[in-house]
């Protein structure tokens, strides 16, 4: 029988305020589509996707991604939700300053509950929206990510821009840690 077609299985979690586009990022990653009016009660909770990391010897990673799917207000679920996670997408909406400010609280939550070696990437979503609607500049997002030791990208679940790249960037960092025995 043939062996599995991947080298690693990595659990990812997606956190951030309601409405920033967590479900949409997950749908875009796993289904290559975008729903303009997703039904919040039908939030995608889990998605799986194979990605290849060219810089890491073309290793194939099976991403198992969990979305908080509308449970943002139930902070008590966090401990089990974070268990075993290797990567985290910390998402805010570039057109919502409050969602960027709350990212601090989400990060504190991640740091309290998750493995200390977890790789976290800050994702400024909805980069497709016009500059006039922006409330958080790229530089500001980048600066805060750097201060906190997070990876950073801006992405759009709507256009698909940088969505796979965000997961890939985080997965690559995790593979480097694994290779170094961290
Ligand atoms: P969640 O609550 O964080 O899971 O957010 P959703 O995925 O449900 O998205 C909230 C709203 O933002 C929905 O109306 C989406 O269609 C919209 N949305 C999500 N991602 C994007 C994006 O990249 N660009 C734009 N313009 N809208 C988005």
From TrEMBL:
This is Ras-domain-containing protein. One of its GO terms (molecular function) is GTPase activity. Keywords: GTP-binding, Lipoprotein, Nucleotide-binding. Belongs to the small GTPase superfamily. Rab family. The chain holds residues 1 to 182 of 215 of the full protein. Transmembrane segments: none annotated. It comes from the Eukaryota.
